[in-house]
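ok trying again, last paste got cut off:
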Amino acid sequence: MLQNIDVKKEIKNRLDQYLKLKSVEQKKKLMSLIKLLINLYVSGVKPENMVLRKLPVIPPDLRPVVQLD
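nice, full thing came through this time. structure:
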């Protein structure tokens, strides 16, 4: 699903949507999304790489021991 997102096209769509909005609150939310998309585009990070597929787990011997009351 995330592989199908074209970041450049999405930025353009969101900017067009931003210009049509009247509500200040909605504009703030949309601007934060636009900034995120721009940063993804500039850095070259693909959206599908933002989701962890494997969760690293520290072996039990190396985990800190916490005493519960």
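cool. The two ends are 45 Å apart (CA to CA). The chain has a mean pLDDT of 92.
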